[in-house]
Amino acid sequence: MATPHNSADQGAFGKVVLMPGDPLRARFTAQEFLENAELVNDVRGIQGYTGFYKGSRISVMASGMGMPSMGIYSYELFHEYDVDCILRIGSAGSMSEKVHVRDIVLGMGACTDSNYAHQYRLPATCAPIADFDLLKTAVEEGEKLGAVCRVGNLLSSDLFYDDDPDFAAKWAKMGVMAVEMEAAALYMNAARAGKKALAICTISDHLITGEALSSEERQLGFRQMIELALKTARHFA
């Protein structure tokens, strides 16, 4: 059944969906990596495609920016379209001296400053985590690719421009590797639905050193991340 945000027919999505934030990156992924990719949703410009990767039926659809947007689209995919796995593919900013630009971060967990978990009326703090089988498979596929993959904690923040100049250092002292804006909501939606989720992020800039990738370098780095996500997705399609 179509939703206010998704016009796709039932069965239009594969069991596994890759979710970049940017609709243009969704289109790029479909055109460059999937065979026979078909546009199945374009409501509000949030493009969704379904095609085949090495014989496996896989979809890719944008999530938009931030946890409210990720919360909407991942919820509808899990609950209205019977998707089993969502892999976020996006960028992140390093907050660790051990995590460098071009590295790929696999988010084992996602700290957050968001109030997203309030809806569940829990009596204590929620710890959003990735699905272990997805994470283990991504680590193994990353080793085969020769990719530099770092596994650990992310920060999913509601703030892109944080007024606290020391926020990165405060999270880094707790071992948090990088900051992004969607993983925690995805992980909580997956947990509540009994589904699988994993955030795979390329480090595009470094909050401590100030180093940042150019547009061309981002494109090359993102290709490896997308390939890693697709190789992981095949195991669950």
Quick description:
This protein has 237 residues and is an alpha/beta fold.
Low-confidence stretches: none
Can you give the helix content as a percent range? 25-40%
N-to-C SSE string, H for helix and E for strand: EHEEEHEEHEHEHEH
Number of strands: 9
What profile does the largest beta sheet have? Answer: 5 strands, mixed, barrel
Task: Give the structural class.
Answer: alpha/beta
Fraction in beta strands: 25-35%
Envelope shape: globular
Q: What is the average per-residue confidence, as pLDDT, rounded to a whole number?
A: 93
Tally of separate helices: 6
Over the alpha carbons, how many angstroms does the gyration radius reach?
17 Å
Order of the strands making up the biggest sheet: 5-8-7-6-9
Q: Give the N-terminus to C-terminus distance in angstroms.
A: 22 Å
